[in-house]
Amino acid sequence: MSGSNQKPKSDITTMSSAEYQAIAKKHEPPRAVLKNCLRAFLVGGLICVIGQCIQQFFMSVFDMSTTEASNPTVAVLIILSVILTSFGVYDKIAQWAGAGSAVPVTGFANSMCSAALEHRAEGLVLGVGASMFKLAGSVIVFGTVAAFIIGIIYAIFGIEGR
Question: What global pTM score does this model have?
Answer without folding.
Answer: 0.67
